[in-house]
Amino acid sequence: MENSDYSAVGAGFGAGMFVVWLIIIVLIYGSLWKIFEKAGKPGWAAIIPIYNLIILLEIVGKPMIWILWLLIPCVNIVFAIWLMNLLSKSFGKSEGYTVGMIILPIVFYPMLGFGSARYLGPSAAEANNGFKNFNNPNNPFGNNPFGANDPFNKPPTTPDA
């Protein structure tokens, strides 16, 4: 008879944990829904697997090849963290916020989705454009450090035979 008591307690505990897990999942996907809407994308896209990654890549300004990187085991961890960082930067947040999104997503995703954060545009596109051109006034490294004698900006030469 004692085994049946333990079974009932175990089943009750399992059912309770399932309800808690379900609440967490609904909260995270609801937050993603609001994040997508803030970025001008359809909110329902947050609940569709793979398609939500495509929309997320559009939000942060990364190319579609990233879908491949996000599907490869082990590699996807690095790219997912990078994607979270770009998402937080697209909403004007810092790297510290990214750490919060990684460690406590149940707190930081709702803060981003339901809070006062505004979508500022794709941070990846801004970063790529800012550092491609050395003459960009926003470049923190200034103009070309080599000046006119840039050894990397010369046509290739062939050795004389």
Question: Concise description?
Answer:
The protein is mostly helical and 161 residues long.
Characterization of this structure:
- Helix content is 61%, strand content 0%.
- It has 161 residues and is mostly helical.
- The longest helix is centred in the N-terminal third of the chain and has 37 residues, at 2-38.
- The N and C termini lie far apart (95 Å).
- Residues 130-134 have low confidence and may be disordered.
Element pattern in H and E? HHHHHHH
End-to-end separation: 95 Å
Would you identify the regions where 5 or more consecutive residues have pLDDT less than 50? 130-134
Major sheet:
none
Tell me the Rg in angstroms. Answer: 23 Å
- What is the structural class? mainly alpha
Secondary structure tally: strands: 0
Multimeric status of the protein: single chain
Shape: elongated
pLDDT averaged residue by residue? 82
Q: Which descriptors apply to this entry?
A:
7 helices, 61% helix, 0% strand, 161 residues, mainly alpha
Furnish the topology, listing elements before pairings.
Layout: H1 2-38, H2 51-60, H3 66-71, H4 75-90, H5 95-103, H6 105-114, H7 123-132
Helix pairs in contact: 1-6, 2-4, 4-5, 5-6
